[in-house]
């Protein structure tokens, strides 16, 4: 079997990983740079079960799909950019911004420090377009309902299990929080153990968008947001095991406020530009899942941690 899980440079599946009996990890599209270390983290999480676990997850292309039925899905910003309900002028300008800045975000030759000024420009200009687009709360619900945003296959089960076992889930997104709320509410259930930290729209008394609430969150400043100076992580500091789910290098900083974490398992979804980014993702994430639109690998880990098999 040509396993996706190999000792770096060895070409054989790691016995440490295989001993965990999680077959989903032993697939070609799953990459682990340090199997021994990852196996140790997973084993510790299994021993501690759900009592010490918390989850921090990005939304766009992490909890939501990159592609569905052969078509690229909309991100939360893309839900507006791709909608027939939005003004054509808005869509043209938004796509121009995306064409300009998205290649910079995924440019492996640039450092994060070099990218940050461009990301701030992108989000600032994009949010200004939304504010001036005459969007309303009711129209937003219609746009989300008609959009191509899809939760990953198995996401409903994932949410259910976290709620059932009272495991906190922080959804930390540089996208649009109102759209995340609508997508999760329509396609799954928005449980009380879930907290969404994102860019939320500000509506006036008539339901029209007039701006955004709080500080802007872009892909590379998730460690700077107010959640890290709030009491969120303080209130769950007894949960020493943290599973982090993301799809960009900026997502790795989401959990920096969780200072009491002992075991941190970083799971990354690499959705496109695989050849250009795989090695960098393997250096940054403990487990890298390539071009998979499901939660199968994550759910297999959760099943083991919860002691269900």
UniProtKB/TrEMBL annotation:
InterPro entries attached here?
A: HAD-like_sf, HAD_sf, Pyrimidine_nucleotidase_eu
Name one molecular function that GO assigns to this entry: nucleotide binding
Location(s), subcellular: Cytoplasm
Q: Which SUPFAM superfamilies match?
A: HAD-like (SSF56784)
Entry keyword set: Cytoplasm, Hydrolase, Magnesium, Metal-binding, Nucleotide metabolism, Nucleotide-binding
Q: What class of enzyme is it?
A: hydrolase
Q: Which domain of life is it from?
A: Eukaryota
Coiled coil start-end: none
Q: Which GO terms describe its cellular component?
A: cytoplasm
Q: Which reaction does it catalyse?
A: a ribonucleoside 5'-phosphate + H2O = a ribonucleoside + phosphate
Q: What is its main location?
A: cytoplasm
Enzyme Commission number(s) of this protein: 3.1.3.5
Biological processes, Gene Ontology terms: nucleotide metabolic process
Indicate the family of this protein.
Belongs to the pyrimidine 5'-nucleotidase family.
- Stated name of the protein: 5'-nucleotidase
What species is given as this protein's source? Littorina saxatilis
């Amino acid at each position: 079997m040509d396993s996706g899980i190999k000792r770096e440079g060895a070409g054989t599946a790691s016995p440490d990983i295989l001993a965990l009996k999680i077959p989903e990890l032993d697939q070609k599209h799953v990459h682990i740079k340090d199997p021994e270390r990852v196996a140790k983290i997973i084993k510790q999480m299994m021993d501690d079960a759900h009592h010490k676990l918390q989850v921090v997850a990005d939304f766009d292309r992490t909890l939501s799909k990159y592609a569905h039925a052969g078509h690229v899905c909309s991100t939360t910003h893309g839900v507006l950019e791709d909608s027939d309900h939005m003004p054509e002028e808005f869509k043209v300008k938004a796509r121009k911004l995306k064409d300009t800045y998205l290649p910079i975000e995924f440019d492996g030759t640039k450092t994060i420090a070099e990218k940050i000024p461009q990301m701030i420009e992108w989000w600032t200009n994009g949010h200004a377009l939304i504010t001036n687009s005459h969007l309303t709360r009711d129209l937003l619900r219609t746009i989300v309902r008609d959009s191509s945003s899809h939760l990953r296959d198995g996401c409903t089960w994932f949410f259910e299990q976290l709620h059932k076992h009272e495991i906190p889930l922080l959804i930390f997104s540089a996208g649009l929080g109102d759209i995340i709320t609508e997508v999760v509410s329509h396609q799954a259930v928005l449980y009380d153990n879930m907290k969404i930290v994102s860019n939320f729209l500000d509506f006036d008394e008539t339901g029209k968008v007039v701006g955004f609430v709080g500080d802007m969150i872009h892909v590379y400043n998730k460690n700077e947001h107010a959640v890290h100076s709030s009491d969120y992580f303080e209130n769950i500091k007894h949960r020493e095991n943290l599973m982090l789910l993301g799809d960009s290098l900026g997502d790795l900083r989401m959990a920096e406020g969780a200072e009491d974490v002992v075991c941190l398992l970083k799971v990354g979804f690499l959705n496109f530009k695989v050849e250009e980014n795989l090695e960098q993702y393997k250096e940054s994430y403990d487990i890298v899942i390539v071009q998979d639109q499901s939660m199968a690998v994550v759910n297999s880990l959760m099943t083991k941690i919860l002691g269900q098999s």
